[in-house]
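Retro notes, item 3 of 5
We never archived the inputs for the flavin-adenine dinucleotide complex last cycle. Fixing that now. Sequence and ligand:
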Amino acid sequence: MDDRLVQEAEQILGAAHLLAGADAAPYAVDGMVPRAVAFPESVEEVAALLGVAHRLGAAVIPWGAGTRQDLGRPPKRADLILGLRRLNRVLEHEPGDLTASVQAGIALGALQEALGARGQWLALDPPRGHQATLGGLAATNVAGPRRFRYGTLRDMVIGIRVVGADGTVTKGGGKVVKNVTGYDMNKLYVGSLGTLAVIVELNVRLHPVPAVRAAVAGTFRSPDEAWGATRAILHSPLQPVSLVLMGEPTEHGGVRGSAAGGAPAGIGSGPVAEDAGPWVLLVGIEGFPEVVAGQRQPLHDLCLRAGARSLTALEGEELVAAESAMGTLWDLPSAPCWARCRLSTVPARVPKLCEVAAGLGAEHGLRARVASFIGNGITHVLLMTDAGGTVGEDRVIAAAEGLKAWAAGEQAAYVMEAAPVALRRRVDPWEAPRGDFRLMAGLKAAFDPEGILNPGRFIGGL
Amino acid sequence: MVEARIVRELTALLGPERVVGDPHDLIVYECDGLTLERATPGVVVLPETAEEVARIVKIAHREQLPFVARGAGTGLSGGCLDLGGGIIISMARMDRILEVDFDSRLAMVEPGLVNLWLTNAVSKHGFLYAPDPSSQSACTIGGNVAENSGGPHTLKYGTTTNHVLGLEVVLPDGEIVWLGGRVQDRPGYDLTGVFVGSEGTFGIATKVVVRLLPAPEAVLTMLGVFETMDDAGNTVSQIIREGIVPAALEIMDQLTTQAVEDYIHAGYPRDAGAVLLVELDGPRAGMALQADRITRICRENHAREVRIAKDDEERQKLWKGRKSAFGAYGRITPNFYVMDGVVPRTRLPEILRQIEEIGARHGLRIANVFHAGDGNLHPMVLYDGRIPEQTSRALQCGEEILRACVDLGGALTGEHGIGVEKQNFMPMMFSPADLAAMERLKQVFSPDNLCNPGKIFPNPSHHGETTQRMPGIPGGAWI
Ligand SMILES: Cc1cc2nc3c(=O)[nH]c(=O)nc-3n(C[C@H](O)[C@H](O)[C@H](O)COP(=O)(O)OP(=O)(O)OC[C@H]3O[C@@H](n4cnc5c(N)ncnc54)[C@H](O)[C@@H]3O)c2cc1C
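Structure as it came back at the time:
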């Protein structure tokens, strides 16, 4: 081994926690096999590794569980994978403070288990996010349906420890839920996709595990009708925790069965199941039993008045099944070519987005599926085609670029969250940079002047 | 002093009635709610549009003159002081609500809008703006953005940063840019998130997109009366431990309740060691049960009395007492110094004991009124500024209290900001490397350091009491 990067990394970690050569192949990022894969055990080791990478000008790819490594542009270079899975401890959990300190490599599922044993949870439910690490979740700031009530990690991270591009360890925020001491560095790093620093520790605010979780599921003939129900809920003092719209937009608004694998379990079996619409609105409620019970009927009534074709009250296993049905949008599709895009509009424009997706699907010979956290206006569109090769890619790209162009005209936000690498090499997954880009470029230059952290992956090639 | 030729240029831009240069008229701009710190401004201007703000900032930039935005001047850390004798840009005339969109639960407002006016404007439609600093009838949304202000209801709803979606900002070189906007999760760095709480050092916000929330169906306010502060504090911990997240949990000590009773007769007992104000809000269903739970917890912690406000009038009165605490102190002491430390909420009993000790050691009374649910304390050091060494002892008390907060795992400030007041305490919490990272962030927004300079970062030449104080005016008496 005559690679200095590998040699110096080995001096820091020992050979047992370092992969190189052919062993590094499973950690290829967008087809690029790294020179070394390192699994440090401590913040000090992370700092030492970054110090080496900085000195040698090696590009560093922070790696949590690797569940979202396909987000963003392919990196310009990928020399060192910094695997954080050994930094997986809960450092502190004080239930009376409703806060915890964790290392960045802990998986969300493991964390929830540890917290749940003491009646609390991190109020984050990204679909299929159990394996994802806290650091990775923070870097991507992805969230699930219950963001409607709890927000995203952006709202939950109260303190952070990072290792900068040159190996300097710094912290921001603290351990208390209310703190305006100095700048809010948490916000700088959360959502920065590992391009400014490597997150090694997070302090988060927690919530009590709700005593009861339930949902009202309504089926509707069109996104417009479902929006009618959503709108009524948004104007009401009811406090649902999530609002999810699911369906398959087709040009004639026709029925195609709601989601792949049919309607989520239990949904559509209500009183008017016969001509139940293809659009499902899943309204989550949780808290003390009496609070949940008291909201069910009013939600039911609002949905009916908006034209719901069927209504089902979900709890327990049925609720889990319905949520899991939504989650299939995040599973690897079986279609030969596909892309999952995330658009962010004001909630009222979600029906229009569904219509646009349907139109683009018809035009380019694609199937589209939608899962929208409609109360927040965050809509995921999965585009799929049975055509393979470049033909399939052409179709998906045409439709995705159509969505991007529509978003630009609407002042909406757009990103292609996931797609096969061959396709992603041919498009820019990010929306076009806006007027604030000069500040973003300034931040990248200030915090990673050599451009070694996830180089080129973020918006505008940051 | 700002050169006459620059004042003339500003006057040509805005007209004479929107430029304040007369030394007599400038006195009101010398300080904010923290009257301990004062600085004489160069000139004050009152723009009406973002474009005007941009042109003023461009002039400042060209002349390399420092400038600072000023909202209502209710800040409590000296944030809006013009330390460099430059330009104060008052937001007073930019106070319109530009748009409300209930379907999207948002509003777009100008920064000079008074916080409470927004809720007043949308309440008839069943909505509200959640962040509610006690100063909400005076302070501005722009000031709230700069300080990331909180208030009693942040326990459930979070602080300003959780309610700001986007900002139109005039950067320190005069360029107008949008950070964030109406939609959530825009790809890229969270510039809105870092701007909120930057204490006016990253630029001037000229439009703010905020979240609106539907007003809760029901609100219930309760008062728990305790013999000791420990009992009240333990009640708070138990409420949280049992999984109840009330909208607000506020504690007042006896010194405070007595002062408040003398002042506005809120109906607090005068002889109790501490009172706990609990507010529940949300769906009507189940609220009575929640109240029962809280009553039980209060009793288990030896509450002498648990009272539930029976109507809106009694509710308002209980809250008015809480929100008037600062004003009430003005009647029992010539001066007071408000701290804003935070501790993890389980450490409340400990910090309160330490605060008492610190006060006793310095021979000063310290009153406590605080956001107990958040662990955010507001110890009030009562002193008489006419007695020379009392002021410095009050400052000394403040420093010791904050050090104690930090030592317990807390923070220097929960909502009032660092400003000039606490800049030299920053090293208690942050290492030189931590501060260097913050400085690097600032440089990106403000490379010339003209935008509200001299704040937040340690400044060895500043020792508190920037200039002479005006004797005899009780701080907070004007609210
Ligand atoms: C009696 C009393 C009670 C209070 N209670 C609370 C409370 O419960 N919670 C709380 O958080 N605070 C509280 N405060 C503190 C204060 O009211 C807040 O910090 C408030 O946000 C300040 O708003 P302002 O408009 O007065 O801002 P100012 O004091 O005028 O300015 C504060 C800072 O904001 C900057 N700024 C103002 N406008 C802009 C803009 N448009 N763009 C960029 N920067 C700007 C200024 O430069 C300065 O740095 C209280 C104060 C008092 C006097």
